[in-house]
Fold each of these.
Amino acid sequence: MKATTRKDLIAWLTRLMEEYTVIAPAVVGDNVLYKRVASTDEIAFDFTRTDMSPKEHFFPDTQAILAITKGHGEVSLAEPPLEREQVVFGVRPCDARGLKVLDALLLEHQPADAYYAERREKTTLIGLACPEMWPGCFCTSLDSAPDEAGDMDAMLTEAGDSYLVQIVTKKGEDLAASLPLSKASQKRPQPKLSSESASVPSQEVWRQHFDDGVWARLADRCLSCRVCTYVCPTCRCFDVRDDVTQSGVEGSVIQRLRAWDSCLSEGYRRIAGGHDPRPTKMQRLRNRFYCKFHYCPQDFGPVACVGCGRCIVACPVSIDIAEMLGDVARLVDET
Amino acid sequence: MSESMETTIRDRARDLLEQEEVHCVIGYERGPRGDVRPAFIYQAEDAERLVWNQECGHNLVVYLHDRKLPLRKGEEPPRVAIVAKPCDVRALNVLLHEGQVARERVFVIGIACPGMWEDGEGSPLQARCRRCKERVPVLYDTLVGEPPEVEDVEEDWADLAELEAMTAEERLAFWVQEFQRCIRCYACRQACPGCYCYECVAEQVDPAWMGIAIDLPEVFFYHVMRAYHLAGRCVECDACERACPVGIPLSLLNRKIAKEVADLFGYRSGGDPQTPPPLATFKRDEDLPL
Amino acid sequence: MNAEFEPKIVGFLCNWCSYAGADMTGTSRIPYPPNIRIIRVPCSGRVDPLFVLKAFQEGADGVLVAGCHPGDCHYADGNYHARRRYALMHRFLDFMGVDAGRLCIDWVSASEGKRFAEVVAELTDQVQQLGPWQPPQRGKA
């Protein structure tokens, strides 16, 4: 096991900022978010869990995927410029797992999401193990752990004044080449686990309980806002719309924008002609849970939830995904 | 006091459900993690779940919009009982006036309210509660709790004073900074009892008032538009500000409009179900500063 | 104050009074600043606050909403609603950072060609003094 000092880590990050876009947890108002930082002073090293996942740096909330210029009888199309190399520092194991889930959902089937692919390829993940599990966390119920390094390129674990360093991939090794490392003088501290856990029901259970009254009761207090989907590391629905940015006698400039959307919003599934297969709150909320725990595993492989607990904390009416899993598990006991 | 009020609420709920006077009682409960959240009670034996304390801050009137349709074809929409604080009842008055809820379909369990804590037991009262003059709802079918003593609270627009003292440019810079954080999650709109449009202008495709981008021009426009659509209708319950995941001070927007509506038209929303809101009506002879 | 700055003013004029009044300005050969772009609406009461917001968002430096004099509305009471709406909008937009001087609501009758020219000149001058209005800029795409 290798180690580095806090001082060396900070110097290394500062050097990286010259060549890479460095993204790290930073305080923004009352929140902590993964933001591009220009100096290590901006990094909130002692953060717990950011309020939003780092997915926006791979799948931006607003992105121009095409620029269209029309004028003088001609039309030209321009792809967005190539992305810069990124380093995301301070990724938690749940968020790294979230990116692995997005990889399965966005890259493994054709056509792959080229915009996500480019950012993913050009980003190195330097993770920070969680010292403990916080209220809402249940990553251990989903095949992960607060110190799971496998989904990152390298992971650091804080130990007093130094950080223990685990290199996981070649990308991580290459980036960490300029980080002074020495032999670790201590064992890696174990994270404090919480007693919270959620049992994830089997695929058969989801199939059998689609029409159960539990969904209506849960959806009663749902507001159909979008907070849970936007803070979630694996939710990935989006909308595409053309936006005229300039228009005049000389011609016009149009951007094709892709922006986050949410299956929970009322009009999400409304189609031309006005038909809506999910007009009620219950249907939309149920769909979100089924997407995560039934459709995604069935169609793509992984469960599309990483147990980060952000939705539990962010929901204005305390809809709790872990509690929901418990309710569904109880249905099995009752039948 | 809280405990006996809690017992009274449970008793009323139980009676209403046993006598089949209502299909559902909307109130508050404590979740397994300890936080208070909205509760929907359909069986008399579940009335035990209902709680009452100073963490019951949600405006439950927003849920009445889900109860407008009949459960079965040919029937009347179901009757519901709702636990409502004075601010919540003001929102109900707005909905009654606008024909969104029929009075006979709602049984109001009115609460004489001591005010809501900002952040759990022992913390100060929320800003809206510190300003509140009416601790008893103006409309109810049954009242729970003793009307508390209310000092003659001066209307306090002090929260707006700092912004009002700035220049227009400074205010623009302030709002731009606040709205940077907005993720256009619409929690503010969804938590608001007054926002019930089937299709919000923010999501309209034709015309596309605001595009889909989650970026400053769009979110600025959205917040200004939403506040304006609530002019004369917002009851200053601050549900929007509490729902916001990134802490944008939305109450300042709605309160500014409420202040100007009070100044220009002598009106505060939600006082009764009959008086039309000022922007839905007019006076022939009024000299308004333009 | 930038002497080279030419404000872009959007004017929502009601068909029966103020638009006809503007027409009268033209037929009477009374000059007025060319900065205003006129959009004809049936009544000042038709002017949705969204129109005003959209104008500012799309780059207008100033907006004029003009209707019939109160009491003379072709549709009886449209302008009473407009009067209330824009008295409020003035104050609220100012609070949001759009200086009150950028939004003007006024009443111009069909025969007031000279008055229309005066209203437009005054607003253009006022907005010219305030300078260009920069709507919040795109940060992302």
Amino acid sequence: MSTANLNKYQLIIMADDKQVVLERILQVTRYRGFLINGMNAEVNTGNNVATITMTVSSDRPISLLIDQINKLIDIKGVKVDNSAVKTKQQSA
Amino acid sequence: MTESKVLTGGGLLFEVLQEHGVQHVFGYPGGAIMPIYDALYHSDVQHFLCRHEQGAAFSAVGYARAAGKVGVCLATSGPGATNLITGLADALADSIPVVAITGQVPTAAMGSDAFQEIDIFGLSLACTKHSFQVTDINELEKVLYQAFEIALEGRHGPVLVDIPKDVQLAEVTERLDKLSHLKNKVKLPLADISKALDLLTHAKQPMLYVGGGVGMANAIEEVRDFADKTGMPSVSTLKGLGAINPDNENYLGMLGMHGTKAANIAVQQSDLLVVVGARFDDRVTGKLEEFAPNAKVIHFDIDTAEINKRREADAAILGDLKGNLPLLTMALEISPWQEKLQQMKNDFGWRYDHPGENIFAPAVLKMVSDLMPNNTCVTTDVGQHQMWAAQHMSFDDPSNFLTSAGMGTMGFGLPAAIGAQISRPHDTVIAVSGDGSIMMNVQELATIKRYQVPVKIVLIDNAKLGMVRQWQDLFFDGRLSETDLADNPDFVMLSQAFDIKSKMISKKSEVQAAIEEMLDHDGPYLLRVKIDAKENVWPLVPPNTANDKMMESV
């Protein structure tokens, strides 16, 4: 599948370091129609908070994915890293 | 001196269930859940042995929906757990609070492809609101409390707790004094109340679009008060039926694919939609781009993710409907619009003067609805009979009409009726089913027999998978692929094999007496109603079509 015409976003997700939290994020991301272009996940063992940075692309609005990830029980917050956003308009 | 009994993980489960007011559970035992069933043996919680784990899950769903409580089901590892999945998916789609407990192979064997091992924790991700796997006995109590809290917090949903066998057997050394609660995740941004008020006061043709969230928010009184005081004409989704008083003169019935003509035309012509606890489901909107094309939208919901998901809201009001809706309750001057729709409702009313001697299913269901006692709970399966029930029966509360709306699961009706009857032993419970659907969980007739559950079953029998057959006739040039069920068993004989009284009718003249006999019977009863296989559900909005372009006959 070509991703050339899709909008690209970078998300920063803060989550409690609980069982399968990463799988939950991946499942929701795929199901809601977003491709994962890259990701990084780290856990702060001091406070057991995981920080997941994920680059995704889709023709759907990113608010749809943010709302769905936010619904996951172990998620503390989701935001778009605007500095890393690359849209098809910008790349065209 | 008497030795105090050791509390195991299995015993703790039933203590926590009782602490949450759970009196009844539905399940099926097996190897990896035997310590829990051993603890059940000494528990005051009453267990109902279903004959398939899917039946147990649907009974838990029916129990939860009929009683407004959390439904609980149990299953063993592997196939027991996978058999729960359809019921959990159904509960997720319809936002039903269910807690499912699954046994798992011992922790030491996990990940070794052990006998009856499946990664139900992984499988649960797409079909539950949340799930847990407990590998430490010291975590079990906290997890069980969280499971109930999550099932009921915000938008309700199913939660699965997977418990390995060694954790079920482990000794509980300490009970928790104080349990930490989940953080409140429901964010409440400034609701667009002033914007909504502005839209409301300027609307000339507003419509109230009522969904299943109304019943779940316990906001029926507030929604009826809003409908009465504003005088706003209203329509309902399948799951919202019962929220609006069916006798309200401005209520137009169900909208969507098999909605009433008046409801669909009114919504298409409206200039404002006040959406309460509904989500613009595709079966409701038809072609989304042409749904209510001139309407502004005020959207009330508990779930942030439903706002702007399929239709942008001009004013979004997030949070508890019960508290928020009264903020917009006011008198409106919309009498020309009301009069126009009342006339339309009258002009397009249902007709039951079907020619010939054959039984007309809509008339049967209308008569059942007219004759059934107050506060009867009706469940359905999925297909033509489901839509006829939604169209032609009247309900005064959403907890009196249980149907698989979001998932559309055949096999739902019979076990859901069992759960509903157990939760409400003094109310009449009627399962409206079809000859295709009933075979999906027909084994639950044994559960009815075992516990003498006095469920009444109205089996609409056209010896077809009727809804698929209808679509094959209408949209696939009449190629009837795998929808003929002429070789069904004799349902009367089948019922009698389970000690369930049964009767078959095939003529109009037999209908009323048969319904009265069924309703007067003390125990379970199956009424087989033979209908013409060519009957269709009308009206019908074809797929990807605007709701005002409905078909009314062929």
